[in-house]
Amino acid sequence: MLSTFPSEISHDEVELKIIWKDSFVSNYSLIDLRKKCPCATCRGGHGGKVGQATGYIQSIKLLSWKKVGRYALNFYWSDNHDTGIYTFDNLRAYSENSSHEL
Ligand SMILES: [Zn+2]
Question: Can you give the pTM of this predicted structure?
Answer without folding.
Answer: 0.91
